[in-house]
Amino acid sequence: MDALKNMLSPLGMNTNALQDTLKLVVIGGTVETARRISVSAWNGFVDSFFLTAHFSQEDYPYDWLMHWLSKQPAWGRSREFDITTRTVTRSGITQSTTGDLEEDEDEDEEALIHGRKKRKVAFLPSLDTTHTIYYRGHWLRITRTRRYPDYGHGAALKISVVARSNDILKKLVLEAKREYEKDAEHRVHIFLADTTYGCWRWNGARQKRPLSSIVLQPGVRIPFRRGYLLHGVPGSGKTSLIHSLAGELGLDIYVVSLSSKGMSDNTLTTLMSHVPSRCILLLEDLDAAFTRSVSRDSSSTGVPTASNSPNNTNESDGSTLSLSGLLNSLDGVAAAEGRLLFATTNHIERLDPALSRPGRMDVWVNFTHATKWQAEGIFKCFFPSKPKASLSSSSTTPATEEKTDISQKNLPLPKRKTLGHTIPVLEEAEIAELAKRFADAIPEGELSVAALQGYLLKNKLRPRECVDEVGEWIIQEREMREKLKKEKAEKLERKERAKAKKVHRVEAVLKLDSATSCGGSTVINSSGESTPTEPIMPVIISNSKSESSSSSESDSSNGGIEADTEESITSEEEIDKPAGGISTINSTTKESGKEKWVAVRAQPEPVD
Ligand SMILES: Nc1ncnc2c1ncn2[C@@H]1O[C@H](COP(=O)(O)OP(=O)(O)OP(=O)(O)O)[C@@H](O)[C@H]1O
Asked: Residue 214: CB within 6 Å of ligand 1?
């Protein structure tokens, strides 16, 4: 140091300041070196003493572990965890772990409480935080991370434990698997197609629903076949029947929405190659996918053309699913034993007949609005009744007696309970009589079963009043429907007017354009005038488009343009034919090109 001082003093530098700086550098360097050494020593220690297992969300052990974790009482003491009501995670952790937020473990995620969906609360290990859980004499260090943080999805779980052999981790995984499978016995698991990555994502598990809780018309039975097409009005029980069948057969459901963004022949093939051999494959929106201009030619993309779908273009949609691509995939799926193919649609008339070829969709079942028979059945499903033998003198008894109630075994499990309230349990004969009165009041084939269910749910605690007031409710429903219909018609009319205006604007622009182009042409010369627009322009415009200001005429000419440019295989199009006697809504819909797929198959024979 003295030598350094001597060296620097002739330069006139303040040696004290320099000394301090040097000291700081030395101390800082030492501290940083010590930190690095300790970190790498810790990592070395962890590597040599800790066993670490990684679980990726794409694989089943992740589900088992998440399910197991959700049941650990440690969450009650944890100071940091995620609470979610989303079902998009791949874990089945929909039951409460500490019992502090959710009282009713069996409650269906979709149960309606006062007309709203009641959501379950689930606990998750929070992301990027290490949790410590004591398990069989070992401390487990658990960290959940995002695999693709940039894309905001894909999770992974890391579990570390200090142990000599990996037995403890094996035991843990096996225990988690056993518990998961035990729980899964009572649930139907649903997987959704992820069109971005061409894989299946776990989307939740539902309580199994007894088949007897689906009230279908007598004679509607489902024979065993490979492919089923369930068609009919919304809210008539198509999806519920599939879920119920899945529960009955112990199968999981794999759902593909054919109209989803990014769906292509390749994606569908990839998805189909990953469908397990025993499962139900459900194709949703079958009609939605093929209201487009799809051709049997594999080169066809099935994407709406700009003309028939103004808001939807090839680029924005990204869908390149062709009918032939779908048919090939279906044939592949149908080839496997133990796999059932279901498809649902609200518009059977829009489907291509090729979809219903034997081996693809051999059974067609039509679902209609509620009949009186169904109304009676669903009423009996909803209200518990006491068998005559055990009937006490009082007409109503507390809900605790529900457990012995026979009629309740037809209800989906969750709907049997209504917490904190007393459900009147009436005599069987009285329920039968009320059900009959209820059915008498329900107009045949006018209201959906789902609507009836909604009304009954609202009156879950008032069976008698529910029947007394059903007439009023039907009037309200009709008024509501009328209102909605009116609003829809008005909306359509507004749209039509806007469309007509647009056509006029285009005409005006065309006029202007032609005027300008003629202005620069030899027309001027031939007339010998200096003003170019006068001689020819009006004639040219009136040839290409009519001068008519009526919106209907404008629309029909527009429709003509669409028909010319559309790559449609349908020869039965009626788009621009004058629709004598057809209501405004119908005719406008056809003109707008939405109904270009017409029925090519007659109603199939009723299934028995
Ligand atoms: N036939 C039925 N028996 C019992 N419950 C029914 C029936 N039809 C409808 N429901 C009830 O109505 C609700 C809606 O039914 P679901 O989703 O199965 O109808 P959907 O026909 O699949 O409708 P969408 O075509 O809109 O998908 C469900 O909660 C279901 O319990």
From this structure: yes
Write down which residue in 442, 468, 494 finishes a domain: 468
Q: Are residues 113 and 36 in the same domain?
A: no
**Which residue from 229, 483, 527 is spatially nearest to 357, judged by alpha carbons?**
229
Q: How many domains are there within the chain?
A: 5
35 and 85 part of one domain: no
So what's the pLDDT on residue 605?
42
Distance 47 CA to ligand 1 centre (A): 55
**Whether residues 450 and 484 fall in one domain:** no
* Residue 345 CB–ligand 1 contact under 6 Å: no
The b-or-e profile of 348-376 (16+ CB within 10 A means b, else e) is bebbbeebbeeebbbbbbbbebbbbebbb
Q: Which amino acid appears at position 336 of this protein?
A: A
Q: How many CB atoms lie within 10 A of CB 65?
A: 24
Nearest CA to ligand 1 atom 18: 237
- More confident of the two residues 540 and 203: 203
Q: Is the CB of 239 under 6 A from ligand 1?
A: yes
Whether 235 and 256 share a structural domain? yes
pLDDT higher at 8 or 66:
66
User: Is 449's C-beta closer than 6 angstroms to any atom of ligand 1?
Assistant: yes
Q: Which two tokens stand for residue 313?
A: 């273009």
ipTM of predicted assembly, 2 dp: 0.96
Domain membership of residue 451 as a residue range: 372-468
Residue 401 structure tokens: 């007696």
The verdict on the CB of residue 237 being under 6 Å from ligand 1 is yes
pTM for this prediction: 0.56
What pLDDT, on the 0 to 100 scale, is given for residue 211?
79
> What CATH number should be reported for the domain holding residue 337?
3.40.50.300
